[in-house]
Design goal:
It is a single chain. This protein is α/β, with parallel strands linked by helices. The chain folds into two domains: 206 residues, Enolpyruvate transferase domain (UDP-n-acetylglucosamine1-carboxyvinyl-transferase, Chain, Alpha-beta prism), CATH 3.65.10; 210 residues, Enolpyruvate transferase domain (UDP-n-acetylglucosamine1-carboxyvinyl-transferase, Chain). It has a five-stranded mixed β-sheet with strand order 16-17-15-2-24. The chain has a four-stranded mixed β-sheet with strand order 4-5-3-14, covered by helices on one side. Strands 6-7-9-8 form a four-stranded mixed β-sheet. Helix 11 links the parallel strand 22 and strand 23. Helix 2 runs parallel beside helix 3. The longest helix has 13 residues.
């Protein structure tokens, strides 16, 4: 296995231009593909997760010319395809729903970890309205076989407490039904800001969903229409590592491409930074962070609304003046790895005392150990979060650093561009 040793960092300062948001990129690609007309997409993320989405859409009959997506104006024209979607939940879940409405024979598979990530709630919601979907392996998990079905989508029900991607998938697919639909969410809906992204992108493509709180969503009998041009803003989850570096390494560190006007929930990671004692400034499309504190303040926070950026907060807890507690993060269990278990294991390697619960982590910091090798579990966010350990002034080794290619291939180069040992 390859590894990367990060040298001790004494200070972090500078400016970083962020890559495009993964969450927005894959939503835009899918809706541009389903829309009438051609869409010019700028700012699109170029990484593993978006590549598998583009490749899948091309197999399904969508044509690309550079940054131009030529929409098919409804269901996919290709009626038979075998799609490999890596570990991209933002591709696998929405495509499953869209293909259920496309009247063809499709097989969807991914890497081994994707076959461990639950999809049963989405499949059952689709089956209940007439979709024909079989599990090609273990019940409740990919791979899947999708067959032509007879769908009546007036009333749809889906559980909301495992992944918001199931609701997102249904919302984006239902306009293919050609008539108004209502989705009812059963149980508590987690990660609501990601659903807000979905609704925002759907509006850009001409479908304005109304909602009754977070319990029910009314999808109108409209079809997708190209907005002509659309810009993908920078990735707010990826911004968290650089903003944290500004808090840990003095700063100022500025990220460009995401700011006060962002539609992404992870921009609220700034609230974590402020609670921990950092100084935060926001512009329309930039955020800047600095700190003069020798130690950050410990926090006790519900971070369900920022599940990806909350991983960054877990590593920052190593630098706090007491025990920190991150709550309502059960969704970490079904991500690229079991992030609760993985994070607890790696934090303990660094000397912290960690209590791992069903939906929380309690982290009590001690002196950060030097020269620790961090296992990353083929999870890009594990690799990026733990790079921050170098800001303790100790070397740290990141195993399998190439896993960041999932969303941020240039991450380590940009991280080192703001880091100094002075």
């Amino acid at each position: 296995m390859d590894s990367l040793q990060l040298k001790p960092v004494r200070r972090a300062a500078g400016t970083v231009r962020l890559p495009g948001s993964k969450s927005i990129s894959n939503r835009v690609l899918l809706l541009a593909a389903l829309a009438r007309g051609e869409t010019e997409v700028s700012g699109l993320l170029d990484a593993d997760d978006t590549r598998v989405m583009r490749e899948a859409l091309a197999q399904l009959g969508v044509r690309f010319e550079g940054s131009l997506v030529k929409g098919v104006g409804g269901a996919f024209p290709a009626k038979k395809a075998e799609l490999f979607l890596g570990n991209a939940g933002t591709a696998f879940r929405p495509l499953t729903a869209a293909l259920a409405f496309s009247g063809g024979e499709y097989r969807l598979s991914g890497v081994a970890r994707m076959h461990e990530r639950p999809i049963g709630d989405l499949v059952e919601a689709l089956r209940a309205i007439g979709a024909r979907i079989d599990y090609a392996g273990r019940e409740g998990f990919p791979p899947l076989a999708v067959h032509p079905g007879s769908i009546k989508a007036d009333q749809v029900k889906v559980r909301g407490n495992v992944s918001s991607q199931f609701l997102t998938a249904l919302l984006m697919a239902l306009p293919l039904a050609g008539k108004a639909s209502r989705i009812e969410v059963q149980g508590e809906l987690i990660s609501r800001p990601y659903v807000e992204i979905t609704l925002n992108v759907m509006r850009r493509f001409g479908v304005a969903v109304t909602r009754d709180g977070w319990r029910a969503f009314q999808v109108p009998a409209d079809s997708y229409r190209s907005p002509g041009k659309i810009f993908v803003e920078g990735d707010a989850s990826s911004a968290s590592y650089f903003l944290a570096a500004g808090a840990l390494g003095g700063g100022p560190v500025r990220v460009e491409g995401v700011g006060r006007d962002s539609i992404q929930g992870d921009v609220r990671f700034t609230e974590v930074l402020e609670r921990m004692g950092a100084v935060v400034s926001l512009g329309a499309d930039w955020i800047e962070v600095s700190s003069k504190a020798k130690k950050l303040r410990a926090i006790d926070m519900d971070v369900n609304h920022i599940p990806d950026a909350a991983m960054t907060a877990a590593v920052m807890a190593l630098f706090a003046d007491g025990p920190s507690r991150l709550r309502n993060i059960a969704s970490w269990r079904v991500k690229e790895t079991d992030r609760l278990a993985a994070m607890a294991t790696e934090l303990r390697k660094l000397g912290a005392t960690v209590e791992e619960g069903g939906d929380f982590l309690s982290i009590t910091p001690h002196e950060i150990r030097s020269g620790v090798a961090i296992d990353t579990y083929d999870d890009h966010r594990m690799a990026m979060s733990f790079s921050l350990v170098a800001l303790a002034g100790v070397p740290v080794t990141i195993n399998d650093p190439a896993c960041v290619a999932k969303t941020f291939p240039d991450y380590f180069g940009l991280f080192q561009s703001i880091a100094t040992d002075q």
